[in-house]
Amino acid sequence: MKVGHLVLALALALVIAFAGNRPAMAIERTIAGSVQLDYHLVPSQRNAEGNAITFDGFTKEAALKLAVDLGEHVSANVKICVGCHGFETDMAYFDLRANDELNVRVGRFSPSFGSFNLRHDPGNHKLSDKPLPYDMGRMLRMRDWNMGVLPSPFPDDGVELNGSHWFQDVVQIDYAAYAVSGFKADQSSTDLDFVQSRGGSAYYVDNNTRPAVGGRLALTAKFTPSYDMTLGASGMHGTFDPTNDLTYTILGSDLSFRLEHTTLRFEYLMRREAFDTSDPTRFRYAVPSSHGDFFVKHGAYAEIEQPLTSALDLILRADGMYRVGNVLAGSTLDAKSSVGRLTLGTSFAIDDNVRLKASTELWGFTDRDDRGHTREVSFHLGAVATF
Amino acid sequence: MKTRLAALLLALATVVVVSCSGKPGHPGLLVTGDPPELYADYAIFARRCSKCHGLSRALDSGFDTDAKWIAYVTRMRRQPASGITETDAVAILRYLHVRVRRQREAKAAEETK
After folding, report:
1. What's the pLDDT tens digit per position in B25-46?
2. How many domains does chain A contain in total?
3. Given an 8 Å threshold on Cβ–Cβ distance, is B71 in contact with A358?
4. Looking at CA atoms only, how far is residue A200 from chain B in angstroms?
5. Cα(A136)–Cα(A110) distance, integer angstroms
6. Structurally, how many domains does chain B consist of?
7. pTM for this one?
């Protein structure tokens, strides 16, 4: 009943706001996009015959976005992406905006979570790879780890309330609260199925009746014209199985500084996820009678981005993940597994809209692969164009 | 062992290339030829807009009217943690207005040749 009252009050507030002064405004359309081609070389991931045994070679990501401002209070966005996952609808939503402080987003979008996702387009981040907590498939041993904590982007169908307010032109507060379909997996799955969650093979229909909910709160402070900071906290919770028995909770915090031309970013994410233990023989370790039906996956990164000239940026990133919990009998992971990575990269603008990206990644795993290796090296060389 | 050596060499090469690349400048595009009274507005534009994307993404959008820029900058200002105040937006629009006017004048001069 209380939720009903809240929705009614919100609807009334929006009607009143939209019914106010509405100056005439022409319809404005913006088309933008990006294309990235990356070559990932993993020389250490080869078998005795010299054949690659991991996901390396060329990958491309392309995106095309149409943004339409239909007036002072209504806008719409559609974005289509093509990548290793095939064609995906990254965005298809409209915004109903009363003012800066109150916006209702309806449709398909990535709900507000963390700071990286705003820059997930390869045209907007300087390295070829995403940070490990947000990895969507380029990481080594991707299938063993089932990608990152929250593979980015994470478009979903739903509704989000968001807004922003400035205090004295010094402090900006952002908030968001949303309800979306949520991640998906089969009843017997021991982890989220990101392909089923994201892809259109199931016609973008929710697999259970219960929406996932979440929110974000962020504070941006401008200390001087060239020194600002953003601190944020995010969370989401939902069920992923068809019968709403298995839950997941994802929490995150982020902190970034911009000091002159230097940018520092820190972000931490964790996902606690339940799994079905009705058949304990599936697992490698004995399932305890209590607290044995979930795992926790932590992920974090620290990154420094330093422009050295107007065309060249240097990027240094340290990131990693740590998983605690039972695993399937055939898994290459243990009850406690971790992966760490150190990346040194450059991004060079060869033209206003074209950048070359080159990076070296040093990997360390706690688990040995079938060749007994725990360390790996990989290289990226890519080009990205924006328009 | 060979791969580690290759990684080390590449990292060293990266550092050497970076070290030889001159002194630091503004992130993103440097716009030359702008009148000096626009420098402060350009600085705000460069500072705020480079937080999430390269400056060329805005400058090469092809927008040629104030109405388009107002809609675009308003949308960007409302992005979470944009750091763009309404005062910043005025300065950014002022810079973009002059830039578009200069581009239009240059194009007209080109056509009359």
Report:
1. 344 444 556 677 788 898 899 8
2. 1
3. no
4. 28
5. 14
6. 1
7. 0.87
